Amino acid sequence: MLMKNKAEDAAQQILQAFAEPNDLPKPIASVFINRRDGSPCRKWTWRNQLIVAINGCSDARGFRQWEKVGRQVKKGEKSFRILSPLTRIIDEEESEKRRVAVYGFRGTPVFGIEQTEGDPLTVSSDSIQEWLHNLPLREVATEWELSVEAFNGQGGRCLGQYRHGKGFALCVEDLSTWCHELVHAADDRNGKLKGSKINQEVVAELGGAVLLTLLGFEHAADLGGCWKYIQQYARTDNEKALKKCGEVLDRTCEAVSLILDTAEPLRADVQTVTV
């Protein structure tokens, strides 16, 4: 109950700031992730890299690709599929040139490195992995058995994604996106990630800002970006956007308090071990 009261207080302060949108800071520019660890999948489309990340894998390849680097798919492992284009050559009579045309897609089976065994991979270090490991409240994702992976997603349609029961995929190095997706997961665990897409997104965006404010990351809470995001989803004027926030305020605070309630005993355990 204490955590929910704190979440409600922080949410009210944020809503008060939203009531005077001219005083809000400009949205923080997104810093896109660029993983450079030598894996062939880093050259795949952002959509296929998202598929890899959302399946909880840090690297993925086809069966034969893994064999070429001395690794074998473990017995009984099931593949997941990326989208490979179907192409054909078209002769252009007027220019007497040939071009490649995409006429569809097919699913190509791949396996994550976690599904393989064999020789260790010799790739360059990936600082992104350290960033993912040190995310605030990362221990909550671990407790809920949800993976956290990054993908090269510049030019894509999403900055992050949560998949029910699987994990998170992030393509930007900003805490607001991470907390947005974490609130989606909490909303899901509360049995409320359903119904109106607008409500889901307002809960996640407002909840992420509340979380970061409570954690002391006021700048990363990005209130300017949060308000702009909510306005876009609400597709309405300031007054109605604020009303939409009010409609889902209790649900938002329930999601935030679940995250904090989960994190508190985990952090207490760490402090006990440290002492």
Provide a compact summary of the structure.
This protein has 275 residues and is an alpha+beta fold.
What can you tell me about this protein's structure?
The chain has 275 residues and is of the alpha+beta class. It has a domain at 2-37 and 122-266. The chain is built from 10 helices and 8 strands. It has helices spanning 2-18, 46-54, 63-68, 127-133, 138-143, 175-189, 197-215, 223-234, 238-247, 249-274; strands spanning 60-61, 71-73, 80-92, 97-112, 116-118, 147-150, 160-163, 167-170. Helix 6 (175-189) crosses helix 7 (197-215) and helix 7 runs antiparallel to helix 8 (223-234).
Can you count the beta strands? Answer: 8
Outline the biggest β-sheet: 3 strands, antiparallel
Task: Give the overall shape.
Answer: globular
Oligomer: single chain
End-to-end Cα distance? 28 Å
Structural class: alpha+beta
List the secondary-structure elements in sequence, H or E.
HHEHEEEEHHEEEHHHHH
What percent of residues adopt helix (DSSP H or I)? Answer: 40-55%
- Which band does the percent of strand residues land in? 15-25%
Helix run count: 10
**Which strand order do you get reading across the main beta sheet?**
1-4-3
Spatial extent as radius of gyration = 22 Å
